[in-house]
Each structure stands twice: as C-alpha cells, then as structure tokens.
Design a protein that fits this description.
By secondary structure, this protein is mainly beta. It has strands at 7-15, 23-38, 43-62, 67-98, 103-115, 127-139, 142-151, 170-177. A hairpin with a 4-residue loop joins strand 3 (43-62) and strand 4 (67-98).
C-alpha cells in the first residue's frame, strides 16, 4: 500500500576488493534521504537523512572481457541522523516582502510538527540492521543492480496501527560507475 512506503535515494562510494577467484568483500559509505507522504499515517510529509554501511560477501563472475555478473549479500547497517514529520494542516501566517509587486504580503508557513525523537516510546530507533541480497551486471565500467533488504530491527514506530510493519524492508535499483 502506497501510504506505508518510503521513497528515497543513496549517494556515496563503495569498495570491492576481489580475489582472482571472484570472491571478495563489498563495503562502503552512502548517504541516504527518504521521503514519504501519508495522510493515512497521520502526517503529510516524512523525511529522514541517514548513513548506510554495507558489510557483504561479494562474488564476481566474468562472462567476457567487458561483461561480468555479480552478487553480494550480507549485513546492511543504517544510522539515522535526522528525521521529521510535517502536517500541512498546521500553519501560521508571516509577512514577507514581495519584490515583484513592491509590497508586503501574507504568506502561509507550515510547522514541522516534530523532529523524530529516535528511541523514545512510539518513535523509530536510530539504528537499523538488515539482511541484504543484491544481483547485478557490469558492462565495461558501468554497473546496474537490483536488491532486497529484510529489516532485522523492530522499530515499533506504528505498533498501534493495525497491519503496519515496523521493520524496514527495502527494494533497490542501483546504477553506478566503477573507477
């Protein structure tokens, strides 16, 4: 159901030392930004910024000189740095100067209802762990992959909302370039 999903993106770097046998390690550091809109969950906008570190076993299988198949899986660790929820029903008026019209106008500003109080009762935990599996292909230096993460941390964020999971499962599609 759309109201129970987060959308987001990652940007960062990965490090993949690989032995001649194709076995190796996949790790790195990524910054993540998530966004969700859900009136059904009691807010208009949810945002979160976090850091992500994968600790995966890696396997790379060369198919030709320029094409390789890859798979990696293991533990994914997230640390949430900041999050907030906004309710567009809560607003206040401010006077702002309008350069075009040369006058002061009233503008509607929205309250950020709350910064997430990570770890407090009824709020998500700051740390998240997941089991992850990623499959992909490398063509020359370009990478494309898809993966899934099964959340291990029970956040109990929506524990009182029927039918809501409080673990973070992620479906991902990645595009990258290997230097």
């Amino acid at each position: 159901e759309e109201s129970k999903r987060l959308h987001g993106f990652q940007i960062g770097f990965s490090y993949t030392p690989t032995l001649p046998s194709g076995l190796g390690v996949y790790t790195g550091l990524m910054a993540e930004f998530y966004l969700s809109f859900s009136k059904a969950m009691g807010y208009d906008e949810f945002t979160e910024f976090s850091f992500y570190v994968p600790i995966h076993a890696n396997f790379k299988l060369p198919v030709s000189k320029e094409v390789s198949l890859m798979a990696h899986g293991g533990l994914g660790l997230n640390y949430a740095c900041h999050g907030g929820v906004t309710n567009r029903d809560d607003f206040y008026w401010v006077r702002k100067w309008n350069e075009v019209l040369g006058r002061t106008d009233w503008d509607k500003e929205y309250y950020e209802v709350d910064h997430l109080r990570y770890g407090k009762d009824g709020w998500p935990k700051r740390f998240n762990a997941a089991l992850e599996l990623v499959l992909g292909v490398k063509v020359q230096n370009f990478l494309i992959s898809g993966g899934y993460s099964w959340g291990l941390t029970d956040h109990q964020f929506y524990k009182d909302v029927p039918g809501c999971s409080t673990s973070q499962n992620k479906l991902s599609i990645s595009v990258g370039y290997e230097f």
